[in-house]
């Protein structure tokens, strides 16, 4: 069958792009997508909403120290960048002039691009953000691409094989049909349009995904049966690295492509630009994939097909059809390879291959700071069973080589920065990560994977269930689990006994306040009991690997709760809001509490962990892993090898 001819029309205030499969209608010069015609449906978008509220880019920003400002990103000039038999690309650009700008103007030049290609069932979107010289200082908090679909057609959402369901209607979130709970985004459906959803809780954060696990999400509509999918073929342009959590879809029906944001990590994620600082970054392209079927019984096949399309898009990244010279083509990129090993003499006398480790390039220059990096690109892969890695298609530049290894605490950072050159492979050979360790392990709680997933996650209160997460690997996404701590421990706090207790049943996943009389929330103290056959003279180390913290005051005492036995205190710990956003991890950090052996006794001992800030149901600490190390002695194992680096 012959390919249909590409068509472009620019009449009045609208531009239409038509490849015979998909037809886009865009407002010029602003660049809002107001219409997507496909598969017999004249418009997949919500035509009843304003033209600027259907398919659009937006941004949250502020002047230093100022209030948050929200802007729809609009073009000021429309142009055709490329048009041939295979591809059509258009631009909607707004150029920032620092010499004539007002104080209310966003200090960015933004170029929004859309691409349709012959024979391709969908379209591509990307944006070029640039700060020319002379710009004032400003902070960039969030930017994204949003599509609001027809609520009369799109009711079924899909994010993973397990996370799929019929969603509420937007009216269900309003008073009368929905009841807002403690968390503003959480709504109890008391009288939903679909009675099958009555009694459930809906919250957009329940559908969040880690960057490393995301890349495809969308909706399936009916009458006709059409799939609308957002595919991110690369994560390189998103901030926060592989463990950054982002929103995907939510009741609307809304489909998002989140590029930059602070969710689950806090305001330290905000990209802060100094006066005169220049910057340029390409966000995307992302692919909006559309598919359909005439057979109702095969509607789910649209999800299966979308997964195959995602894999295809990943294999052809970076794309060879993008016109902007700011988008770096494959031939102009480089790569880096090597092998990561772990040296822990208390586990093995040999170097340990860093199996399934995450290793990546980021412009961040200190260990672990890639989590908060928001200006540059990041390139991450997982090692194989022998610790080998090969990071391909890297934009040339100077990077820090970062990593973390499941089973070991802390963050790896290569001692030298890595220069990636155009068209060249950089080979690093063997690298060695030496995780934090001073002495032998006396006991440990959990498994160091930067999450609290291995701890006890309670069943949801039946009043606040979301059926999607019953018997789900993401059980922790249910609403109100923080209050289940009070239900389980109404009077006395959690006590964990080493050698007897099990984290999966006896270690609550979040160290939160207890709900007391009058619904007042009070601090809590968890006790770890352990027995020592002997006490070694010297310094003991308590390692606290933190998966998340929100507005907490964390204190550690040894054996007695007085100032003389206080060995660690960290105030105002964390701002990642993971507890209220139904997550299992946020900003990862590692602390060590050193204390002298004189605080311990032969026989029974206790360590007290206190979340000392009260008055807030949503503050708390999620522990990844806790380990007590004895002092190193002359009998402690010595390294049998020098570090390879």
UniProtKB/TrEMBL annotation:
Transmembrane feature ranges: none
Localization recorded for this chain is: Secreted
**Pfam families registered for this protein in UniProt:** CBM-like, fn3_3, Rhamnogal_lyase
| Catalytic activity entry | Endotype eliminative cleavage of L-alpha-rhamnopyranosyl-(1->4)-alpha-D-galactopyranosyluronic acid bonds of rhamnogalacturonan I domains in ramified hairy regions of pectin leaving L-rhamnopyranose at the reducing end and 4-deoxy-4,5-unsaturated D-galactopyranosyluronic acid at the non-reducing end
Task: List GO BP terms, alphabetically.
Answer: carbohydrate metabolic process
Task: Give GO terms: molecular function aspect only.
Answer: carbohydrate binding; rhamnogalacturonan endolyase activity
This protein is called: rhamnogalacturonan endolyase
Quote a single Gene Ontology cellular component term.
extracellular region
Family the entry assigns: Belongs to the polysaccharide lyase 4 family.
Upper taxonomic lineage: Eukaryota, Viridiplantae, Streptophyta, Embryophyta, Tracheophyta
The EC code for this enzyme is 4.2.2.23
Q: Which residues form the Rhamnogalacturonan lyase domain?
A: 355-428, 441-628
Name the keywords, alphabetized.
Lyase, Secreted, Signal
